[in-house]
Amino acid sequence: MTLQNAAPMSSQNLPRLGITIPYTDLAPRDEVVDFVQAADRLGYESVWVPEAYGYDAITFLTLLATRTEHIQLATGIVNVFSRTPALIGQTIAGLDDISGGRAILGLGTSGPQVIEGWHGVAFEKGVRRTREVVEIVRMVLRRERVVYEGEVFQLRKGLKLITHPRRSEVPIALATLTDAGVALTAELADRWMPTLYDPDRAPGVFAAALERGGASRDPQRGRLQVCPTVPVYVGDPAEARAVLKPYLALYIGGMGSRERNFYNALVRRYGYEDEAVRIQELYLAGDRQTATELVPDELVDRLCVTGDEESCRTQVGALFERGVDVPLLSFANLDPEARLRALDALAPARLTAPTASRS
Question: Residue 211: how many CB atoms within 10 A of its CB?
């Protein structure tokens, strides 16, 4: 199947959907570009490019900026440890200019494995550092003289950006899962990008943090947009679980140390205490197969969208009714033709509730 000749679809009054791109090169670059171009034509709102310890996000987003017309281009995410706030600011300003004002800055702390093990930087004061990065980036984009006295950063020379950003403010999304991080997100960010998001349980789990942070939010910033990553597999549910369980086992069991794994802690808060403990024990001991087998079917069904095309459309539509503003769909179908079919099947214009997405 090819969507090369599909006519562009207007995104006006359609549900807002994003897509995420894997941080590995399992799929060839040209194939990924074709996929994003198809999403652009089908009216998807945004594409989110991570980096972890693969290629950096900005380089690929710049390529996409030259190959697409409407889709917004988001870092999904870059971490706040490996670049200075000023560099993040000038980089996103450059992407925003090249793309004609389509950039979104997705930020997060990542985790100790990447920050300490890859970048060689101490993983500390993550929430405070994120706050200061956001504040400084916004100063950079407004072309203010950056004089800043923080706990992490002290900038005293009063320099300002010598180039002129296309926009004085770029939307900022924060990928947070701890209560302190979620509260910061509710206070400062334009979007919240949670991972392993259970649309039924997460609102209750994070209600207090969201309320605490929201109490300090500048009303002029508008309402925080909820934009969770949502793994999707269009096909047989049993086959979908076999594909998606290794992904969940990796996050629950292997993303971080035994003492500090944000995803494991979140799954425990969802009520899977015993399962999370055992999956982590097995994963860290090297028995990934058994760890994967222990991921409950119910958890896959809660965190992912699976089934035939109509069922997946219904499940995505239901996310809007549960307070999600922009589901960021992560298509797990590995075959490129099947992935394109899934992208087309879940295109915004094909959902049954076009007014569900809130502005």
Answer: 11
Tokens standing for residue 70:
């409407």
3-state SS of 219-250 is: HHHCCCEECCEEEEEEECHHHHHHHHHHHHHH
Q: Partners of 231 in the beta sheet?
A: 330
Helices (H), the chain: 29-41, 57-67, 85-98, 112-117, 126-141, 179-188, 202-205, 207-214, 237-249, 262-269, 273-284, 288-293, 297-303, 309-321, 336-345
Q: How far apart are the first and last CA of the chain?
A: 33
Query: 18-235+304-350: which CATH topology?
Result: TIM Barrel (3.20.20)
Q: What is the pLDDT of residues 266-310, one digit of tens each?
A: 999 999 999 999 999 999 999 999 999 999 999 999 999 999 999
In this prediction, residues 60-79 reach a mean pLDDT of 98
The CB-side HSE value for 153 (13 A sphere, CA atoms) comes to 22
Q: Is the pTM of this model over 0.85?
A: yes
Q: CB under 8 Å to 342, separation ≥6 — which residues? A: 232, 233, 234, 309, 312, 331, 333
Q: How many of the other CB atoms lie within 10 Å of CB of 89? A: 24
- What are the residue boundaries of the structural domains of the chain, listed by start? 18-235+304-350, 236-303
What is each CA distance from 270 to 177, 202, 267, 298, in whole angstroms?
Answer: 12, 8, 5, 12
Residue 127 structure tokens: 């929430």
What tens digit of pLDDT does each residue of 1-54 get?
444 434 444 456 789 999 999 888 888 999 999 999 999 999 999 999 999 999
> For 324-353, b where at least 16 C-beta lie within 10 A, e where not — what string?
bbbbbbbbbbeeeebbbbbbbebbbebbee
Cβ neighbours of residue 108 closer than 8 Å, sequence gap 6 or more: 77, 78, 79, 80, 130, 174, 175, 176, 193
For residues 32, 170, 57, 97, the Cα torsion angle rounded to the nearest 10 degrees is: 80
Position 47: which residue type?
V
Read off φ and ψ for residue 317, nearest 5 degrees: -60, -35
Reduce the DSSP state of residue 180 to 3 states and report it. helix
Tokens standing for residue 299: 């958890």
For a pLDDT cut of 70, what percent of the chain falls above it?
94
